[in-house]
Structures are given as C-alpha cells and as structure tokens.
Amino acid sequence: MAYQDPQDQFPRTRAYDYPGQQPPSQPQQYVGGTGQWEQAPRTPMVSAPAVNPVLFVGGVLMTGVVVGLAVGLVAWILEKATANIDAVHLGDSIVLNYVITGFVIAIFAAAFWYVLQLITPAPGSFFAWIGALLLIAAVVAPMLIDTGDLATAACRSLLHLVIGVPILGLIPMVGSQSKRR
Question: Is 130 exposed, middle or buried (0-12, 13-18, 19+ CB in 10 A)?
C-alpha cells in the first residue's frame, strides 16, 4: 500500500494508470480520517469582469470628453452655418446642451457595457446590437417628430449620429483595453 498525500488532488492509483484515462474533472478534497476523496463544493461561475477600474473609468471619462467635443464642434458649425436661415430653428445654447448630453450618454453607455459583461454570455454582440438599434432610433426619431421642419430635423439627426458613432466605437475598445492582463 502506497502513501497518499492529502494535498494531492489526483493521487496516482490503478484507476488513473490506464491509458487514455484522465483525472476527474471536478476538483476533489481529501476527507481526513476516512482516507477517502470527495468532490469539493463548486464555486459560482459568475464573476465580475477582470477590468482594471482606474483604466476603465479614465477611458470612459475620456470617451465622454471626445463625444462631447465632437458633438459640440458639429453643433457649433451647424449653429453658425444656419444662423441666417429662417427654416432651421435649433434653439438657444444648442452647443452646451449637446456637449452635456453627449458626455452623459457616454457614461451611461459605459455602465451598460459593464452590466452586460456581468449578465450576458456574449456582451460585445449584445452591446453592438442594442447600441446600433438605439442609434438608428435616435437618428430617425427627429425626422418622424418634426415633420413640418425637415431642415431642423436633419440637423438634429446629424447631431444624434455624431453622439452615437464614437460611443459605439470607443466604449467596447476602452473596456477590452482596460482588462487586467
């Protein structure tokens, strides 16, 4: 009879010495006193994504800054280009409103990306599909709501597109690049 080490998960016995036979797939633990091996309790499979929080938050904030600056620049250009056109009514302080909106939407999109990492089997695909569908709805909605003022609706649709495209591109990249290595 050979000595069995209690720390050895897969003791060498005749049961494992047959060609093609593998040790058990479940982790086992040694039960002292009985001399027997039993299956260890299973640990839960769901865990938080291995994301470095400092890098992720920094990347999300910079994504918000990029989105805010991009939509602010386009809103400023549209405001200046349509200042003398009576058919376009974008409103007062449109640049500031869209900068803040773009920044906040980027933060919410990052939080949504993180939640999808926790609860779905294919978070990247779900984020891309849901984000694309929301972007399409945001671009089409002004055209359907402002039917009498097509020029203003087109400007608002363009601004919504400028908010959505960087978010769809940057948030998944920031998340994947901030994963712990």
Answer: middle
Cα-based distances in Å from 56 to 20, 50, 82, 114, 181: 45, 11, 38, 10, 13
What is the per-residue pLDDT across 59-105, written as a single tens digit (0 to 9) for each?
Answer: 999 999 999 999 999 999 998 888 888 777 777 789 999 999 999 99
Residues 6+ apart with CB under 8 A from 51: 114, 117, 175, 178, 179, 180
pLDDT tens, position by position, 6-25: 666 666 665 555 455 555 55
CB count within 10 Å of CB 21 equals 8
CA distance 81 to 91: 14
Neighbours of 89 (CB within 10 A): 12
